[in-house]
Amino acid sequence: MKNLVDISPEIQEILDDALEGRRISENDALRLLKARGDDVLAIGLAANKIREKKVGDIVTYIVNRNINFTNVCINRCRFCAYRRDVDDADAYTLSIDEILEKTKEAKEMGATEICIQGGLNPKLDAEFYADIVSSIKSEVDISIHAFSPMEIKFASEMNGCDVEDMLKYLKEKGLDTMPGTAAEILDDDIRDTICPEKINTAWWTKIVKTAHRVGILTTATMLYGHIERPENQIKHLKVLRDIQDETRGFTEFVPLSYVHFNAPLFQKNKTREGATGIEDLKVHAVARIFLDNFKNIQASWIKLGRKFSQVMLNFGANDLGGTLMEENISLSAGLRTEMITKNELERMIEEVSRTPVQRDTLYRKLAAVPME
Ligand code: SF4
User: Fold this and answer.
1) Looking at residues 292-296, what average pLDDT do you find?
2) Is ligand 1 within 6 A of the CB of residue 147?
3) Ligand 1 mean position, distance from CA 193 (Å)
4) Rounded CA separation 35/38 (Å)
5) Which ligand 1 atom lies nearest to the CA of residue 198?
6) Domain contains 36
């Protein structure tokens, strides 16, 4: 059984460094992302070992609900099948009462977090964002994880204030944490093609660092599998690693595998048909190895599917994300997104011989870990 995996010497050297706790360079990470054959399995084994050292056998998940409060958006990101113009027949914007109703339902179903994001609707104003947060906080005891850095920029522009003031204002109203979405690929050459109207890398970085500084922790994400190459993925991961070195404000990294079916750019044959399975494996494993200052790597069951997200638990991931209850972005992009229960998540975790633990947004454990 010895030497069952045939590893090339240069990959072995990089993995040895990582396993001994030495930070790997961008070039090394690029070699890992370009690896093939048995080397991919070796990278997975190393990522799994590093995960084990860092967080042990616990795999976490959260009971939460997604609320996408409007699909009206002035931007036209070319991978986005969710956005609508204000006068489209299926354009919608939820009222504060509807958002509140959904939050109360989620709370009754055991959710500890509500995740709120939407398009950039020119008919709304900054007060709407503040009202969402304050009305939920005044009626429901639940953690509010809301508004991407792009939405923060949009709200601050509508309000005529700077992003720091907007972040402080929303925090004061009850915003707890933020999703680190709108990151896509943090390389402006790629952004210019897939989302030219979105905030650029410098703005994304500035808003996230400011959020961390004023006490709003965020997640970090990466949308991969469209037009980017491993070089761009590494640039992205380096931006995240540098921010984390400075602020320690990221709670987790969530790789988001691109859903191509209904994406406008795919329909013009301008993107790949999403990532391949091997690419998914490598992105998760290399993220675990390269992002040595991140504790948590999430496998998104909604993007990867239940079966493949379970496999990621052996390729460096230690979290399966949330129950979500509803998800409109991936649904619009063409994915079947039937919901998942807490019991199903726990079964997926137990079947890889790990211990399921329900967590809150900040990764505090909400259920006792069973004794051996
Ligand atoms: S990704 Fe977000 S900002 Fe871009 S078009 Fe879609 S809803 Fe608008």
Assistant:
1) 98
2) no
3) 14
4) 9
5) 3
6) no
